[in-house]
Amino acid sequence: MTTTLENPVADKIQAAVLPTIVLDFDSTFTQVEALDILAEQLFSSDPARLTDITAIKDLTDLAMSGEISFAEALQRRVQILKPTKADLEGLVETLKGLVSASVARNKEAFLRHPGKFRIISGGFHDFIAPVVAEYGIRPEHILANRLVFGDDGIAVSVDQGNPLSKDGGKVVALQGWDITGPVVMVGDGWTDFEVYKGGAADRFYAFVENVKREKVVQATHGIEAAQVVVSFDEVLHNEGFEGRYSFPRSRLKVLLLENVHPTAIQAFREEGYDVTTVKGALDEDDLIDAIQGVHILGIRSKTTVTQKVLDAADKLLAVGAFCIGTNQIDLKGCSKKGIAVFNAPYSNTRSVVEMVMGLTVILTRNIYDKSIQMHTGKWDKSATGAHEVRNKTIGIIGYGAIGSQLSILAEAFGMRVIYYDVAEKLTLGNARRYRSLDALLAEVDVLSIHVDGRAENKNLMGAAQFAKMKDGALFINLSRGHVVDIDALAQALKSGKIYGAAVDVFPEEPRTNDDPFVSPLTGIKNLILTPHIGGSTEEAQEAIGEFASERLLNFLNRGDTTFSVNMPNVQLSEVEGRHRFLHIHQNVPGVMAAINNIIAKYNLNILAQHLKTNESLGYVIVDVDRGYSKEALEELKAVTGTLKFRSLT
Ligand SMILES: NC(=O)C1=CN([C@@H]2O[C@H](COP(=O)(O)OP(=O)(O)OC[C@H]3O[C@@H](n4cnc5c(N)ncnc54)[C@H](O)[C@@H]3O)[C@@H](O)[C@H]2O)C=CC1
Ligand SMILES: O=C(O)CCC(=O)C(=O)O
């Protein structure tokens, strides 16, 4: 199967006859209404004038949505604001930092096509010109009002001779401009729509990235030449401009489940992707419905990505596990479809380790049960059964990222550390590796499990293993629920064989906070139960949000597969001034030769080429210079064994 990212609209438009794109300034070129910002700047520190901030905003909104006359709103706002030239300089600096995200990320396109982008605004040339200059828009390509200053340097009114100070002014002003060829108007406000309605523009884009004005959006319905766009990427794409992106990001859907941290949501939105979030996990049926049309899926530990889900995933490019474990994802199924899987292998490691150390002390001192007794009014000040952790032996099963971190912290607490791992590991500090699990079990005062969730680890700790432990040992599991036979653990605790335990993960976990927790472990003495929160610290969640979204964005934006758990890892630079083909295929003979034949046939000039394979997949990345034909792309997609094909610009 290939991923087809086509753009029929752009195909129809001859690249040679690029239109002139005329942008509105307020809430389009910038994220904000400049006069609202000016009001905040001038009045927010003066309690007596706070109401003027609201008055300015109200006037702006009424004019933008077409409720009152634009000319009246403009004049009244200037009368309230009365700015000086120095005030406007401050405003310019603020506005430079508030350019719309999709405009800012397409700066290269602005600079590459001087004269093709112009500004028309009911705002003021005085502050617009220095902001748009950074995008190569010259003063003569800005139509805007001018402020009239009094002798005292304070602006008192608007230049009345300028058509833009009047109602319907944008239509008149634009018609009088020296533009040849098609004109495309992009804006959020009613006066922008009027430009199209009044015949001064051939096409209109209602720009809703910053603000959605219902009256304007409604007005576009049923008009073939008008369209609502959530980002400037779409405008560039539709109008045949070579923006940074071969496919508008706003049409790529990201579905984030399980309360993924806001840093991730923001990262995708800032890059222009269409993000949907869901608080809890989805069960298989709901996920099958939700996954259709989704390009990127973000989950944590409670969403299971099964073969059936993958079969329904018609557009899926990548799955991000916003956690460490990936046992909830059918990795083989993903590989078979060329879907890349990423996780955040180190972002919550420390949180888990700190929790294990805390639990170790709490259990060794019997603090948990003492606290429960206190809550029932029982004061039991006694040292019996309470111990220091110093000189005790902690046994770690699974000496990976978490196990080895724990080794360091436990040693710092004065504990003796021994570990068991099926793989060769670098032993840290004075820890000792045991090659026999049984030998380790027999020696530990505290046992902590940190193996990964592979299926073979089911019931790694069962009745036989608990029986091999010292009487009165402590047991901790913050790895995966299925690793421990919980009936056997319950029995070992009830019999006193295991003196105390802490369990954070369970074979069956509720999908959301509203679902009940049912387990044979509830109600047992000296057993601390926690709702899978080993990695749930604000620090870890933020770090995971940043790390996982960065991996996914690097994959989307440049094809980089660094840290992918199933794809061959290839580190790639940004796509600058070139085209990049990304070809994911089954690792079968002949694919590379077929790709190279097509490249030779179409005489494509290769700037860089990479091939990396793993057991099941091959990943070819080809960077070519700008000239290539659509036929070449079609042939590359059709190579036998192709799973996914994308091109980036
Ligand atoms: N409770 C929570 O909120 C969290 C749980 N976790 C879980 O903690 C576990 C460990 O995470 P990491 O240390 O990052 O993983 P890791 O992959 O770095 O380490 C796992 C280690 O276990 C070893 N191992 C696997 N099976 C084994 C076996 N049968 N016997 C001995 N050693 C075995 C591996 O060789 C590896 O060294 C994972 O299951 C992860 O999902 C991770 C973060 C948060
Ligand atoms: O916090 C989560 O959702 C899962 C944490 C976890 O178990 C992991 O990172 O593997």
TrEMBL record:
Keyword NAD in record: yes
PROSITE patterns for the chain: ACT (PS51671), D_2_HYDROXYACID_DH_1 (PS00065), D_2_HYDROXYACID_DH_3 (PS00671)
Cross-referenced InterPro entries: ACT-like_dom_sf, ACT_dom, AHAS_small-like_ACT, D-iso_2-hydroxyacid_DH_PdxB, D-isomer_2_OHA_DH_cat_dom, D-isomer_DH_CS, D-isomer_DH_CS1, D-isomer_DH_NAD-bd
One Pfam family per UniProt: 2-Hacid_dh
EC identifiers of the protein: 1.1.1.399, 1.1.1.95
Recorded catalytic activity of this chain's protein: (2R)-3-phosphoglycerate + NAD(+) = 3-phosphooxypyruvate + NADH + H(+); (R)-2-hydroxyglutarate + NAD(+) = 2-oxoglutarate + NADH + H(+)
ACT domain boundaries: 580-649
UniProt entry tagged with the keyword Oxidoreductase: yes
Uppermost EC category: oxidoreductase
Record's keyword terms, sorted: NAD, Oxidoreductase
Pathway the protein acts in: Amino-acid biosynthesis; L-serine biosynthesis; L-serine from 3-phospho-D-glycerate: step 1/3
Gene3D superfamilies: 3.30.70.260, HAD superfamily/HAD-like, NAD(P)-binding Rossmann-like Domain, Phosphoserine phosphatase, domain 2
Transmembrane portions of the chain: none
One GO MF term attached to the UniProt entry: phosphoglycerate dehydrogenase activity
Record's function text: Catalyzes the reversible oxidation of 3-phospho-D-glycerate to 3-phosphonooxypyruvate, the first step of the phosphorylated L-serine biosynthesis pathway. Also catalyzes the reversible oxidation of 2-hydroxyglutarate to 2-oxoglutarate.
Protein family according to the UniProt entry: Belongs to the D-isomer specific 2-hydroxyacid dehydrogenase family.
Protein name (Swiss-Prot/TrEMBL): D-3-phosphoglycerate dehydrogenase
Native species: Asticcacaulis machinosus
Upper lineage: Bacteria, Pseudomonadati, Pseudomonadota, Alphaproteobacteria, Caulobacterales
Gene name for this UniProt entry: serA
